[in-house]
Amino acid sequence: MWSESDHHSILSDNPFVEVELDCCSFLQEKMELWDKNMKTTEVVFEAVLPVLKLLSMALIGLLLSHPKIQMIPKPTLRLLSKLVFFLFWPCLIFTHLGPVISVKKFILWWFVPINVVISTAVGSVLGFFVALIFRPPPEFFRLTVIMTAFGNTGNIPLAVVSSVCHNEDNPFGGTCYDGIAYAGFSQWVSVVLVYTLIYHMMEPPLEYYEVVEEGTEIEELTDLPTGNENDLSTPLLIEAEWTGIEDQRTEHCQTPLVATIFNSISDVSQSNIPDIESIREMPSSPRSYGCLAEPKVVRKIRIVVERTPINQILQPPLTATVLAIVIGIIPQIKATVFGSDAPLDFITDSLAMISNGMVPAVMLVLGGMLWEGPNESKLGLRTTIGIVVARLLILPLAGIGIIYLADKWNCLIADDAMYRFVLLMQYATPSAILLGAIASLRGYAVGEASALLFWQHVFGLVSISVYIFIYFKLLVTLF
Q1: Other CB atoms closer than 10 Å to residue 400's CB: what's the count?
Q2: Residue range 107-136: average pLDDT?
Q3: Which end of the chain is less enclosed by CB atoms within 10 A, N or C?
Q4: Where would you find the membrane-spanning parts of this chain (predicted)?
Q5: What are phi and psi of 265, to 5 degrees?
Q6: Beta carbons of 61 and 72 less than 8 angstroms apart
Q7: What's the gap between Cα 425 and its chain centre?
Q8: Helix or strand or coil: residue 237?
Q9: With contact defined as beta carbons under 8 Å apart, do 150 and 192 qualify?
Q10: Could you please report the per-residue DSSP string of 405-453?
C-alpha cells in the first residue's frame, strides 16, 4: 500500500506532473482574470447604459426642437415642462414614496435630508475656494459659491434611478425602485433651503445699488449686470423648474434687503440706510403695540422673515412628498390608498401610469434647453471651468469619503446598496435648475446662472456616467 508521504514524494519527483500542475495553476489564474475582466465590463455596461438611455431621449428632444424641424417648438416644450412640474414629478414621488414610508422608516432614513445639508455645506466651502482662486468679478462672488454648493436633488436623481431600475439586470435587485422614495424624501430639505437661505443669498449686491438721501427707497443702478436686459422671454431652462416666474417678480424681490438692514461695516453711512419701519410697513404686517420695545436685532430678523417667500415653498413636488409621508405613516389611511386591495387603488394606479411620463418628458425638455445654448456670461472662462470642475469632479470625490465615514459610523441603513447610491448621487449632480429661477426672480446674474447650468448639464452627462461606474464598483467592494 502506498502511504500519503510516498504519494507526495512521487508527485514532487515527477517533472511531468509538476509541469501539468503549473499549467493548471496558470490556466486557473487566467480564468480568474478573465472573470474579473468580464465583471468589470458588465459593471461598465450597467453604469453607462442608464445614462445612454437618458442621453438618447435628450438627443431626440434636441433634434425635434431644431429650428429647421420645429416639431416641438419652444411653447410646446414650455407646456411639457409645466406638465413635468405640476403632474409627472409629483405623481412619481407620491406613488413610490407613499407605499414604502412608515414611522419606522421615517426615523431610519434620517441621514437622507442630513446628507443634503452636508453636501451643500461642503459645496459652499469648495465654491468659496473657487472664488478665492479664480477671482470672479466682485458682484458674482456669492453666485460662484451658490452654484458650486447647491446641487440638483430632484428630477436628475429620479431620472437616473428610474433609468437604472428599468434594466432588469441592475445590481440592486427587487429593491431598486426604493431609490425613488429615497430621492423624494430629500425634496423638502432642498426646497426649504432654496426659498430661505439661497433666496436671500441671491439678492442683488448692495454695492451695485445707490441709496437715496433721506429716503426710504432703494434705487437700482441702470448698469447692474443682471444678464437679462434684452431677454424678453424666460429661458426654457428656468421655466422648466419654476413655471410662471414672471408673475412672481415684484419690486422688493430685486432689492438688497438683507444687506441694507444688517450692513454695519459698509461704506454706506448708517444715516443713509432706509428706515426699518418704512421697509417693514406692509399691508399684511400689522403693527405691534406691545409695552416692551422690540430689540433691534429681533426686529431686523422679523423683517427678513416677512420678506421671505414662504408661500412659494409648497410647490407641487413638495406637496406630493408631504402627502405621501402623512398618508404612509398612518396605517389606516395607507391601507385605503396603497396596495392591491385598497379601495382607492385605481386612483393610485392612474397616478402611477401618469408618472411614467416624467423621465422622457424631463429629458426632452433638457434636449430643447441644450439647443438654446448658453446665455452670455460675464463670469469669465476660468471661473466657469473652476465651478464645473469643483461641482462635477471634486465634490463627488468628497461625497465618497463622507458616505464611507457615515457607513463606518453606522449612520446608514445596513445592507442597502440603493440607499447608498442615492446618497452618493446627491454629490454628483449638476447645480439645481431652480437656482436659475431664483436668479431671474431676484434680477441677479441671470445670464451667468443660465450659462453655468448649461455647461454643467452638458459635461454632467459624462461625469455622471463615470461616477455611476465608480459607485457601482464601490458598492460591491468598499461598502
Answers
A1: 18
A2: 95
A3: N
A4: 43-63, 83-101, 107-133, 140-160, 180-199, 350-371, 383-406, 418-439, 451-472
A5: -120, 20
A6: yes
A7: 9
A8: helix
A9: no
A10: HHHHTT-S-TT-HHHHHHHHHHHHS-B-THHHHHHHHHTSSHHHHHHHH
CA distances from 93 to 86, 186, 330, 354, 438 (A): 12, 11, 18, 11, 23
Rg (CA), the chain: 27
- The residue type found at 233 is S
Output the DSSP codes for 49-68.
HHHHHHHHHHHHHHHHT-TT
- Which single residue is written with the C-alpha cell 450692513? 263
298 Rama class: left (phi>0) / alpha (psi -120 to 50) / beta: alpha
Identify the bridge partners of residue 390 per DSSP, sorted by sequence position: none
- Give the residue from 197, 208, 190 showing the smallest Cα distance to 145: 197
Q: What pLDDT score does 228 carry?
A: 42
Sign for the CA dihedral angle at 149, 385, 65, 425 comes to negative
DSSP conformation class of 286: P
Alpha carbon distance 183, 152 (integer Å): 11
Kindly tell me if the per-residue pLDDT of 56 is higher than 60: yes
Above 60 in pLDDT, residue 22?
no
Rounded to two decimals, what is the model's pTM?
0.78
For the record, the C-alpha cell of 61 comes out as: 428632444
Whole-number Å distance between alpha carbons of 84 and 355? 9
Task: Count CB-CB contacts under 10 A for residue 100.
Answer: 18
d(CA 107, CA 118): 18
AA identity, residue 347 = I
Q: What is the C-alpha separation between 454 and 388, in angstroms, rounded?
A: 10
Q: Is 60 exceeded by the pLDDT of residue 273? A: no
